[in-house]
Design a protein that fits this description.
With 273 residues, the chain is an alpha+beta fold. It has 8 helices and 9 strands.
Length: 273
């Protein structure tokens, strides 16, 4: 990074910092310009030293950890392309695990579950993350682009998951993804991507919720102004209280390198575990 900084001319530094950080020593301004280039900081952060220090510390921790699910930051040029990989959902299929969970679906104790790699999202500091799931890559690409245009700051992680939930008769006679359990209970199975956002601030976490309600939640069949494949009930949850959210329990069952995650109301937690 020092070698890169040495190539920055005074004019380039002034342009990148956009008239901020003028009180900093020349060496610090040069380093700040590199951090702005990398997306670690925004020029406005230089006017708020505690915020800048927090972002730099988070960047160093994240880079050192080298998390296998990390895609990059909101606004990165290659972030949308990273969603086009082969997500290898077939590695999440385990018939024995499905049989174990089927008992809960049949009895009505649970109404659905997700399966992903075991421990993939363990170890994140509490209070700053939110997990959002969807089956459409186009939807997720448009969501990431939307967050960038709205100026939200977050690290982005993604992992494949399979989802299953009880089929409702009022949904009609569709057959795609329907599986009939030995008990006769019908469930819908699908392949999704679970995206974890690690926000730079709690304010951005709240703004994310507002943007979903405005642009990614369908409230009527003919509603316009939504991003692609907006769901009636978008599925996302966070690990700390947030206005508009109900408290839930996240029950995690490990099995053979996989984990099934069950989101249940607190009042039903004892029945599930």
């Amino acid at each position: 990074m020092q070698l890169l900084a040495a190539t920055y001319s005074d004019g380039k530094i002034d342009r990148l910092l956009d008239d901020t950080g003028s009180e900093l020593p020349a060496s610090d301004r040069r380093a700040a310009a590199v951090l702005v280039t990398l997306g670690v900081l925004r020029p406005a952060d230089l006017d708020h030293p505690p915020r800048a220090r927090k972002k730099i510390q988070a960047y160093l921790e994240i880079v050192a950890r080298n998390h296998p699910a990390r895609l990059g930051r909101v606004g990165d040029a290659g972030l949308l392309l990273a969603l086009d990989r082969d997500w290898q959902h077939d590695e999440l299929v385990d018939d024995r695990l499905v049989e174990i969970l089927a008992a809960g679906l049949t009895s009505g104790v649970i109404t659905g579950y997700d399966v992903r790699r075991q421990g993939i999202y363990d170890g994140f500091a509490p209070g700053g993350t939110l997990i959002y799931s969807h089956s459409s890559r186009l939807h997720l690409k448009q969501l990431l682009a939307l967050l960038a245009t709205e100026g939200l700051s977050a690290w982005v992680y993604a992992t494949p998951k399979t989802a299953a939930f009880l089929y409702r008769e009022e949904w009609g006679t569709q057959s795609n993804g329907i599986r009939i359990l030995n008990s006769g209970v019908r469930i819908i199975e699908g392949q999704e991507i679970a995206v974890l956002f690690r926000f730079d601030s709690s304010d951005d976490r709240g703004r994310f919720h507002e943007l979903i309600l405005k642009y990614a939640k369908r409230d009527s069949k003919d509603e316009t102004g939504l991003i692609a494949s907006a769901w009636w009930q978008p599925f996302y949850y966070t690990d700390a209280p947030l206005d508009g959210f109900e408290p839930i329990s996240l029950v995690i069952l490990g099995y053979g390198g996989l984990e099934a995650t069950l989101t249940v109301l607190e009042a039903r937690t004892c029945a599930v575990v």
